[in-house]
Amino acid sequence: MGRPKLPDQVKAKRGTLRPCRAQGVVATEVSLLDVQAPAHLKGEAKKVYELKVRQCFAMGILAEIDADALALYAWEYAELIALQRRLKNEDYVIEEITKNGTTTKINPLAKIVQAKLATVNALGSQFGWSPLTRMRLQAIAKGEDKKDDFNELLND
Questions:
Q1: Which domain holds residue 92?
Q2: Residue 39 lies inside a defined structural domain of this protein
C-alpha cells in the first residue's frame, strides 16, 4: 500500500522536492472556507482537525488530498487524549496474583497509550509537525539550506 504521494508543490514548500523524483502530482488548491471537518469526527477530534487545518494553511502545505490523512490524525490524537485521561486514574504498573505468587506487569492501557502515541507521531511527521522539520523549513525560507557536498563532488 505505501504512503500516499504528496503533491510536488507541498514537497517544494517543505524543502524535500527533488527534481529527479518529481511526480507531476498537482495539488488542488483549497480555501480555508472550503474545509469542513468530516461528519464522523466529533468533540475533541473535530477541534483537533480544525486547529490542524489552520496550522497547515499557515504553513502553506494543505492540499485537498490531505483531508483523509488529517482526519485520521485528528481521530487518533483525540483517542490518545481520552486514553491518557483514563490512564491518569489508574496505576502504570499492576500486580497480578498467579498460582506461583504475585507478579507485577505494565498496565495494558499504558501499552495502548504508547502505541497510539507512536501512531500520532508517525502521522504528524507526514505533515512536517516536528521541531526538526520546522527548523529545516525555516532554514530553507532564509536561504540557509545546506549544500549537498556529495552532489558538488560528483558535478566537479
A1: 8-144
A2: yes
* pLDDT tens for each residue of the chain, 156 residues long: 566 666 676 777 777 777 766 666 555 555 555 667 788 888 999 888 888 888 877 777 777 777 788 889 999 999 999 999 999 998 888 888 888 888 889 999 999 999 999 999 888 877 777 777 667 666 766 765 555 555 565 665
Q: How far lies 9's CA from each of 6, 62, 83, 101, 147, in Å? A: 8, 10, 36, 61, 21
Please report whether residue 156 resides in a domain. no
- Residues 81, 59: Cα–Cα separation, whole Å: 25
Count the Cβ atoms, other than its own, within 10 Å of residue 101. 7
The model's pTM: 0.63
Contact 8, 24 (CB under 8 A): yes
Is 153 part of a structural domain of the chain?
Answer: no
Q: How many structural domains does the chain have?
A: 1
